[in-house]
Specification:
Blueprint lengths: L9 H10 L24 H5 L6 E5 L8 E4 L6 H4 L2 E4 L13 H11 L7 E2 L1 E3 L5 H4 L2 H7 L1 E2 L1 E3 L8 H16 L3 E3 L2 H5 L6 E2 L7 E6 L14 H5 L4 E6 L2 E5 L5 H12 L9 E3 L11 H7 L8 E4 L14 H8 L7 E3 L18 E5 L5 E5 L2
Parallel strand pairs: 3-5, 4-6, 5-7, 7-8, 12-13, 13-14, 14-15
Antiparallel strand pairs: 1-2, 1-16, 2-3, 9-10, 10-11, 11-12, 16-17
Length: 369
């Protein structure tokens, strides 16, 4: 039987007893759960450190919308070699039921190493929908944008034009570069390589259209606007990432044809799922090209919120079922994860996703904070 020294004071006794209790924070990184998009949580070391020779992609939780921060690899100096590329900036928060995307993006980036006035080496607005461009002016007023890209199609949206103007003014202040339209100012044609992501990352412009492929530019539908989206394939080492913006099945069919003809290679380890997990994207035929064999290296990432589209919230069960057919359990992550008890416009900021393509060839994704 353990005996305490009779000279020990009550205060010291209490302190000694407390020291025997494990007060450390448990590691929940592998407590995966059973929810439809449950997955691993990032450890503090992953969140706090960006090591050399790693391509890191942040899916920022802006609620219903998109914002993706790409940090490119470096070898010796992150400051001198790594580039910060921001693709979309979420909604403005000025539309009923939407989140303040610009504020969320800025807060997240400031909390992960950037300071006010730091360079955004390139800012891409994928297309003229408010849940993608709405936060752009806030980003432009906080950081220094050195290059700006969009598809060129504005859908006569005054909000989009205003955001473009703010970004372009920022670029001009630093004598940067404006690449609008993406085809032909960024690259001469789709499926061409681009230097937008620096010298270490092989990047291909998969899609961008100055007018909708349907030809309906005078009164475009949501699908028409989505199908003008800027999309990229990024390759680091042997691994590839597809950033699909809001492209729908009509463009997926064109990409499938290009893949089958040998013009591009869709096989990837990471898919940023198109159009927030809508049923109008991520067909089984497309996913079969992206994930031809099921592997622990493969991940699908969804950026979505709780906004209702005629009674449907995203991602749809149909899309999740399609993805589950091609991916291991707990390899589908969504910024909407476990947000079912929240209302539209309040579901942002708690399910950021970090993706790591590492120097040793491993690919991992996890929920950050």
């Amino acid at each position: 039987m353990r005996r305490w020294h009779p000279a020990l004071s009550p205060a010291l006794l209490a302190l000694a007893m407390l020291s025997c209790v494990d007060t450390s924070v448990p590691d929940i990184s592998r407590e995966l759960g059973e929810g439809r998009t449950d997955g691993p949580y990032c450890t503090p070391d992953v969140i706090d450190n960006f090591p050399p020779e790693e391509l890191r992609i942040h899916i920022i939780d802006v609620g219903q919308g998109d914002s993706i921060w790409v940090q490119t690899p470096y070898y010796d100096s992150q400051l001198l070699e790594s580039r910060n590329i921001l693709i979309d900036a979420g909604p403005s928060g000025n539309v009923v039921g939407s989140s303040p995307g610009g504020d969320v993006v800025v807060e997240y980036m400031l909390g992960h190493g950037l300071v006010v006035g730091d360079p955004i080496h390139a800012f891409v607005l994928t297309h003229a929908h408010e849940d993608h461009y709405g936060g752009g002016a806030t980003v432009a007023s906080t950081f220094s944008i050195e290059r700006y890209v969009d598809p060129g199609f504005t859908a006569d949206s005054q909000g989009f034009l205003s955001t473009r103007a703010a970004a372009e003014a920022d670029v001009r202040n630093v004598n940067g570069k404006i690449s609008v339209p993406a085809v032909d100012q960024l690259v001469p044609r789709i499926f061409s390589s681009t230097d937008l992501f620096g010298e270490y990352v092989e990047a291909t412009l998969l899609w961008a259209a100055v007018t909708p492929p349907s030809g309906n530019f005078s009164n475009p539908s949501g699908t028409d606007i989505n199908n003008t989206s800027v999309a990229f394939a990024l390759r680091w080492g042997q691994n590839q990432v597809l950033l699909m913006a809001d492209l729908e099945k009509e463009v997926e069919a064109a990409l499938i044809a290009a893949n089958d003809a040998g013009e591009i290679n869709l096989q990837s380890q990471v898919l940023k799922v198109a159009h927030h997990g809508s049923r109008n994207s991520s067909s089984p035929e497309f996913l079969a090209r992206v994930f031809p064999t099921k592997s622990d290296q493969d991940w699908a990432l969804i950026s979505s919120g709780r906004k209702s589209f005629n009674g449907t919230t995203l991602p749809t069960e149909e899309t999740l079922t399609n993805l589950h057919d091609f991916l291991p359990d707990h390899h589908i992550l969504s910024t909407e994860n476990r947000d079912d008890i929240k209302t539209s416009g309040t579901e942002h900021g708690d399910d950021h996703i970090i993706v790591r393509l590492m120097a040793d060839g491993r690919v991992e994704a996890c929920y950050g904070f």
